[in-house]
Write a structure and sequence with these properties.
By secondary structure, the chain is an all-alpha fold. It contains three helices and no strands.
Length: about 70
């Protein structure tokens, strides 16, 4: 089947395709970021928590949401 030109696909279909492509990109980016995240040993994590605390020690408005 040959790809349809943009004008015959219709805007709703194009918007749906764009959203699906964005969802796949977000998922792959999230997976990639998890793979490159450095390993932290238990002792390193304890040192970090003693230094700056745990996430629950902060107010919700102190966090920044990142839209992937």
């Amino acid at each position: 089947m040959l790809p349809l030109p943009y004008s015959t696909m219709g805007e709703p279909l194009v918007a749906e395709i764009r959203e699906e492509v964005r969802a796949v990109i977000r998922e792959e980016l999230s997976r990639f970021l998890m793979e490159i995240k450095p390993f932290v040993s238990d002792s390193e994590e304890k040192e970090i928590e003693e230094s700056i605390g745990k996430p629950r020690d902060y107010r919700k408005d102190e966090f920044v949401e990142v839209d992937l």
